[in-house]
Amino acid sequence: MFGFEEPSPHAHLEHLCINLCAETMQHFYNTHIFKSSVESCRDEGIVCDTEVDYVDNVPCIDLISSLRTGLLSMLDAECSVRGTAESYVTKLKVQHRSSTRLETKPTAEPHDPRMFLIRHFAGRVEYDTTDFLDTNRDVVPDDLVGVFYKHTCNFGFATHLFGSELKALYAQQQAPRGLSFRISPTSHSDLLNGDEPVSTLTQDFHTRLDNLLRTLVHARPHFVRCIRSNGTEAARSFDRATVVRQIRSLQVLETVNLMASGFPHRMRFKQFNARYRMLAPFRLLRRSEDKALEDCQLILKYAMEQPPVLDGSVTLAWAPGKRHVFLSEGIRQHLEHLRTEIRHKSATLMQATWRGWWWRKKMGNGGAKRSKIPGLQQAPLPNNKTTPNSAAQNKAASSTMAALAAVAAAAPISVPRLSAKTTSLGIGGTVARPRPQPIAGTPPPDPQEKCDQKIIQQTCNLFGLDLERPPPVPPSRSYTITGNSKISYPQNRVMKMNFPEEGQSEAPQLKKGEAVTVRGHLMVEHKGQSFHVPFQFMTLSK
């Protein structure tokens, strides 16, 4: 993924797409870090003394990617009517005359009617629309595609890349015949008998951006802010103005203030108690659903009595809500430090107890066993003569060691419970080095609580997505690879199993052993009906 682009002197369509992606990622960051934290505190009645003032870039995203009036949608409409760059900019001026993010009077002198300027979150960028329409059409003439025909081209890789286009081009006798094809990868369904492609470059980019956003919404993101030291890409050069501008645009100071004084972390009471219950005396914990809040407050009370590991400038504030306990960054680090310290002491106690038991067991099995233990030598007797008194003493000592070993083996070892992921025993009873754990940010949330539904709804509304409908199937190749051969569509296949599988709510629409016709990627026809069937349900007919 590219970062924010600010080329000089002017930007083009590819820079506009890259900056739209940067704006979208910044909006996702603002929603995940600032907006969700503020709204969660407000919903559960938590009063936070820290006011986080962040810049909302939704107007800029709407300006570029709105469904009907966005810059990209208007560009697609202009391509369909074969307009010009001047007419495109003129329509932008009329449609967005009240927008504060768009400026149609660029800094270039003399005034160029093909220029416009957008105020992005990271700065102002001036765009030149001279090549916008040609770049968005993303087409290549058929005579250029015909150069890669396999009978006249020795570069097989290029022939493979344009396989769908060449198949459609040479389906008739006359070739070339003045057709146009997409430069970007297309599927056979996009080639409508040699007509111009049905999608544009910006539409493909928007589809990929939507897929990326869907993945991020259902993930647990971790953000890394990258600051470049100068704008000329020079080594060992630090430009103070460039760094300050990036820190302000990326809202690093607002993030630091939220982490230091606000409540950026929240956990449900049950998950909090399960993670930090070892910080409070076990006998005082209620360990029940209706007493989860009391257990949470008890754990935090004992944690606050411990000396803090951070300096005094970091707050150790926390607040109980209706369903969550809200934590500052300071108290979260304090809790994690105490938890790690207790687990380390518990692991040491377990290891010492086990080693002591193991040595006592070895020493309680007689002198023959003792002599085989490395580093343990039996002390010689003062003389070689065996007296009745010495024999009785040796016999008593042996019985005493055996009794101690039996007691140690039968006694329960009361030590705190540890996970097998942190401590492991090697061969011969040696303790292996614990595997380092990854640095965790916010403690793990409820496994059943994937994400905030409000955020999903707002994001889908922003990009015009429908939660009730699945996303469109992306374009695919016009063939499949089986073994070392390439098989084009349509294909005759046989169902290996019922679809949908048994156990689902609906009855099977395709049964095992039925013959179907595969028209494309996931597209299957049977008895005049079309289905979306994954390939693992079918096999090639013999």
Describe it for me?
Belongs to the TRAFAC class myosin-kinesin ATPase superfamily. Myosin family. One of its GO terms (cellular component) is myosin complex. Residues 380-395 have a biased composition (Polar residues). It is a single chain. This protein is α+β, with helices and mostly antiparallel strands. It has 4 domains: 1-138 and 200-262, Methane Monooxygenase Hydroxylase, Chain G, domain 1 (Up-down Bundle); 139-199, no CATH class; 265-338, no CATH class; 479-540, Roll (SH3 type barrels). Helix content is 40%, strand content 12%. It has helices at residues 13-43, 58-65, 71-80, 85-95, 132-137, 142-145, 156-161, 163-169, 201-217, 240-249, 252-261, 269-276, 292-304, 329-363, 367-371, 388-410, 453-463, and strands at residues 102-103, 115-120, 123-128, 139-141, 180-182, 265-268, 318-320, 324-327, 424-425, 431-432, 479-482, 485-488, 491-495, 515-520, 523-526, 529-532, 538-540. It has a 5-stranded antiparallel sheet with strand order 16-15-14-13-17, with no helix packed on it. It has a 3-stranded antiparallel sheet with strand order 1-2-3, with helices on one face. Strands 6-8-7 form a 3-stranded antiparallel sheet. A hairpin with a 2-residue loop joins strand 2 (115-120) and strand 3 (123-128). Helix 1 packs parallel to helix 9 and helix 14 runs antiparallel to helix 16 (388-410). The longest helix has 35 residues, at 329-363. The chain is extended. The chain starts with 12 loop residues before the first helix and ends with a strand. The model is unreliable at 187-197, 366-386 and 403-432 (pLDDT under 50).
